[in-house]
Structures are given as structure tokens and as C-alpha cells.
């Protein structure tokens, strides 16, 4: 494998839920260090696509390679591959029975056989990075949604993954908490992490993405640079989606509210 | 004609049901405990014959009752864990075996099972009476415990498992480090109830020549003909034990909820 090879390669991935075709022959390459943002209406298959990348969803046809290794290949240990692919969920999913610090150290200690002391040093450095150092001894229920999500990002980073997947990381948050989570993600992006992000945050897509992927009805409709995507989208479905999501009625000065 | 006097009975709506921390319920526990304990002390004091004699005769049985209870519940918890995991297994064969066990055991009265295992086991191997009794109790309670474990495991949000798997934990590690430690808290209250129920049900093993509280009492009563006094003392002993146990279990529940208290 050379440096130019993609770190994530999806080739004609097809996925059914019963009779419903959730993904139809989706192909996508992500290079190391690249930031891909996946947009699309709900039910378009974007979360499903993301979840196939660490095999939380199985696929019916096609192939997925992570760092050159076949996700469905014989003799491949899925748990080894998952250690290199961090994931952040919409509902945080922090381990409720563990403190913030323990949430970060559990996997390194149990899976990488890291010494507790070393794991805790690493965890504290990561908590520092996401601004949660002073909450290390707290339990998840004691934290706000935004704080929980920042801890969840740090927990994924504690395994020192090569790739980070974000599944609508700010969708379950109150608006005033989204920015603290997005700030952490932007910092991570600036440090060169390979990121695949499913989100509704157009601002984040515009600022951070190298590539914006638009999905509809289980297929990739358009994939281009954010500038091109937001200023001159090619596909009519994309244009329609952008028209619906970017219109902001309160900016319409013709409506005399006050 | 004057209006007849009416007694009105107030029917509480759901909101008016007294909660655990309300005074009435707490004092009921204290009242029962103090009442039973006082009788246990006062009766032998004012009427040593037969009460004190009974109180001297029965305690050997208390030890046996506890032995049977603790051994049975430990074995039942182990069987329950295996059964519960079997009931949620994707392996059809394992799932069938576990479900079959639960269905069969739940459909047969405990007393019949005790006789059956005691005599059936006795035909195959010679085991001490106490061991046979423990196996029979655990076999029966393991099935109920299996359902408790299954429900407890299924009560944990699937997102917890997904988070663990995404970090690289295999299914067994996910169960051990993430799901079971959380399920245990859901499981504990019903396990505590099963523990107390099992302690009371061990009185059934007295028919299997195991000298528990009840059997010791019957031995004494059949010699002295003091049936009333004997069974009074036995009831009081059981009551004091179960009251103390139920309090211990609710204290343990509180301690286990540490991570959900803000």
C-alpha cells in the first residue's frame, strides 16, 4: 500500500433492511487525513453508510477496506480493525457505570493491555484537550449533553484511532451546546485526523470538509468540494435539499415581526 | 326521614399511593421487627417452659436453613446467568435448551420438583440429603433467576453495547465489562426478592429429612405436643430473619445506584 491509497475504500456497498434497500451500490474513497462530511435528508442512508464502515451494520453486497484490510475478509479480526476506527454516537453512549476517567481508560487497559498509570496519563491529556479535565471523577449523568459528547470524543481518541466516525454528533444537543462539540471536532480536524462526519451542521461542512457527499435514497448523488457544493450544486436533488435547509425565515426582512 | 349516616371510603388515585420514604411504610417495618423481636425475648422470659426450650432446640435448624438458602441461591444465580444468556443467544440450539428448561420448571410445583429430584437423584447416586435439597432448590430457582437475568440484560440500552463494540470489545468482553455490571443493578431487587422467597421455601426441604428450622420445630412439637407454642416461635424466627434481609437488600440497592445519583 502506498501513501496515496485510500484509508477507507467502499466499493459498491449494498445493504437491505428486509425488503428495503438502504444502500445501493455505494462507492466512496477516503484518503488519510481527509475530512468527509455526509449530508442528506433523513432516511437517505447516511447513518447506515457510516455504520457499515466499522461493521456495526452488516452489508449484503460489495466490499469495504480499511487501511488495506478487508472488513469482511476471512481471518480478519473485526475487533482489531475497530480499535483503529473511533466512533462518536448521536446519544453519546458513555458507559453509565464508569466515571469520565474510567470511560477513557477501560478500552486501553483491557484491549491494549496498557498499564493503568499510563492509560490515566493519556486520558487526562485527552480530557484536557476537550476541556473536561476537571470532570474526570464525575459520572456521565452528572454532565450536560455537550460535556458528555466531548468526553465521548475523548474516549474514542483514547484508543489512538486512525479514523474517526461521527454519527450526527450534535443532533441530540441543545443549540447552545453544539458549538462546544463542533469546536473540539474542528480542532481534531486541524490536527490531521481522518474524519467521516454525518451531520446537519452546514456551517461545519463548509468550514471543515474537504469533500461534501450528498446522499439521497441510499445512493451518493453528488460528491464535491464544499465551495462547489454550496455555490453551484450540479444535481437538482442537491439544489432542492440546499434550498430547503439553508433558507432562514428570520433573515427575511420583508416579514414585519416587530 | 333523616339521612342515614354514611361511611365514605376514600379511594386513592395513583398519585396518592404512599412512597417508600413516607413515614407510614417505614414504621410498619420497625413495628413488625420490634414486635417480633420483643415476643421472641419476652415469651421465653415469662414462660421458659416451653418457649425457652423451643428457642434452645431450634437454632441448629437456623444454621441449616441458612446453609441451604445460601448454597441454593448461589447455584441458582449461576444457573440463572447461564440460562439468561442462553435465552438471548442467537444460537438457536442453545436458545431452545434454555427456553425449554424455563418452561418446564415454571410449570411444575416446587414441592413436586423437590420430591422428584430427591427420589430420582437418590435412585441414581447416593448424595447427602442436604446436597439433594440444594440441587432441587437451585434447579427450580435457576429458571426464575434466568428470566430475571434475561430481563436485566435486555433493559440495558443497546447503545452501550455498540459503544463498546466500536472500541474493539468482542461480544464476551462487552457483556463482562459493560452490560452485566449495569444489568446487575436492575437485577438485584428481583434477586433479593427471590432470595427471601427461597429462604421461606426452604421450609419445604424439611420433608426431605433435612433438619432446617421447621423440621427441628416439628421434631420438638411431636415429642412435647406443644404445637401452638412451637409454630409461634418458628413463625417469629422466620419473620425476624426476612425483615432484616429485606432491609439489607434495600440498602444494597441504594449503594449500587451510586452512578445514577446526581
TrEMBL record, chain B:
It comes from the Bacteria. InterPro entries: AA_ABC_transptr_permease_3TM, ArtM/GltK/GlnP/TcyL/YhdX-like, MetI-like, MetI-like_sf. GO terms for molecular function: transmembrane transporter activity. The chain crosses the membrane at residues 28-46, 66-86, 93-119, 125-144, 225-249. PROSITE patterns: ABC_TM1. Keywords: Amino-acid transport, Cell membrane, Membrane, Transmembrane, Transmembrane helix, Transport. It is a multi-pass membrane protein. The keyword Cell membrane applies. One of its GO terms (cellular component) is ATP-binding cassette (ABC) transporter complex. Residues 62-249 form the ABC transmembrane type-1 domain. GO terms for biological process: amino acid transport. It is found in: Cell inner membrane; Cell membrane. CDD domains: TM_PBP2 (cd06261). Part of the binding-protein-dependent transport system for glutamine; probably responsible for the translocation of the substrate across the membrane. Belongs to the binding-protein-dependent transport system permease family. HisMQ subfamily. This is Putative glutamine transport system permease protein GlnP. It comes from Desulfobulbus oligotrophicus.
Amino acid at each position: 500500500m502506498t501513501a496515496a491509497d485510500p484509508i477507507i475504500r467502499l466499493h459498491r456497498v449494498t445493504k437491505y433492511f428486509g425488503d428495503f434497500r438502504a444502500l445501493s451500490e455505494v462507492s466512496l474513497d477516503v484518503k488519510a487525513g481527509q475530512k468527509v462530511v455526509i449530508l442528506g435528508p433523513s432516511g437517505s442512508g447516511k447513518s447506515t453508510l457510516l455504520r457499515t464502515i466499522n461493521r456495526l451494520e452488516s452489508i449484503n453486497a460489495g466490499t469495504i477496506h480499511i487501511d488495506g484490510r478487508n472488513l469482511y475478509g476471512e481471518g480478519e479480526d473485526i475487533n482489531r480493525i475497530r480499535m483503529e476506527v473511533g466512533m462518536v454516537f448521536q446519544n453519546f453512549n458513555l458507559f453509565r457505570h464508569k466515571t469520565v476517567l474510567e470511560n477513557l481508560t477501560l478500552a486501553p487497559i483491557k484491549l491494549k493491555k496498557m498499564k493503568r498509570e499510563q492509560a490515566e496519563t493519556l486520558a487526562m491529556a485527552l480530557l484536557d484537550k476537550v476541556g473536561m479535565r476537571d470532570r474526570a471523577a464525575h459520572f456521565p449523568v452528572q454532565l450536560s449533553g455537550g460535556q458528555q459528547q466531548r468526553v465521548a470524543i475523548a474516549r474514542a481518541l483514547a484508543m489512538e484511532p486512525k479514523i474517526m466516525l461521527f454519527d450526527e454528533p450534535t443532533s441530540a444537543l441543545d443549540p447552545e451546546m453544539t458549538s462546544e462539540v463542533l469546536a473540539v471536532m474542528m480542532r481534531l480536524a486541524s490536527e490531521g485526523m481522518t474524519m467521516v462526519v454525518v451531520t446537519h451542521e452546514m456551517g461545519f461542512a463548509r468550514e471543515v470538509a474537504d469533500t461534501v457527499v450528498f446522499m439521497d435514497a441510499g445512493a451518493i448523488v453528488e460528491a464535491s468540494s464544499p465551495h462547489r457544493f454550496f455555490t453551484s450544486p450540479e444535481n437538482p436533488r442537491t439544489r432542492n435539499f440546499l434550498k430547503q435547509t439553508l433558507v432562514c425565515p428570520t433573515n427575511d426582512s420583508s416579514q414585519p415581526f416587530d | 326521614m333523616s339521612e342515614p349516616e354514611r361511611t365514605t371510603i376514600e379511594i386513592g388515585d395513583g398519585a396518592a399511593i404512599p412512597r417508600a420514604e413516607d413515614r407510614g411504610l417505614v414504621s410498619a417495618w420497625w413495628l413488625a421487627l420490634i414486635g417480633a423481636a420483643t415476643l421472641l425475648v419476652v415469651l421465653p422470659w415469662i414462660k421458659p417452659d416451653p418457649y425457652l426450650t423451643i428457642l434452645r432446640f431450634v437454632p441448629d435448624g437456623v444454621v441449616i436453613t441458612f446453609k441451604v438458602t445460601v448454597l441454593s441461591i448461589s447455584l441458582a444465580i449461576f444457573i440463572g446467568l447461564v440460562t439468561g444468556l442462553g435465552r438471548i443467544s442467537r444460537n438457536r440450539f442453545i436458545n431452545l435448551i434454555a427456553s425449554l428448561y424455563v418452561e418446564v420448571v415454571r410449570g411444575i410445583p416446587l414441592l413436586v420438583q423437590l420430591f422428584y429430584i430427591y427420589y430420582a437423584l437418590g435412585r441414581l447416586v447416593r448424595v447427602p440429603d442436604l446436597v439433594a435439597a440444594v440441587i432441587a432448590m437451585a434447579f427450580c430457582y435457576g429458571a426464575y433467576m434466568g428470566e430475571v437475568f434475561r430481563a436485566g440484560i435486555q433493559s440495558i440500552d443497546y447503545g452501550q453495547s455498540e459503544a463498546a463494540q466500536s472500541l474493539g470489545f468482542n461480544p464476551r468482553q462487552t457483556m463482562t465489562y459493560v452490560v452485566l455490571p449495569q444489568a446487575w443493578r436492575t437485577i438485584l431487587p428481583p434477586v433479593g426478592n427471590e432470595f427471601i422467597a427461597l429462604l421461606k421455601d426452604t421450609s419445604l426441604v424439611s420433608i426431605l429429612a433435612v433438619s432446617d428450622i421447621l423440621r427441628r420445630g416439628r421434631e420438638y412439637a411431636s415429642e412435647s405436643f406443644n404445637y401452638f407454642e412451637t409454630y409461634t416461635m418458628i413463625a417469629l424466627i422466620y419473620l425476624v430473619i426476612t425483615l432484616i434481609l429485606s432491609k439489607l437488600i434495600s440498602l444494597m440497592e441504594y449503594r449500587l445506584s451510586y452512578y445514577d445519583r446526581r
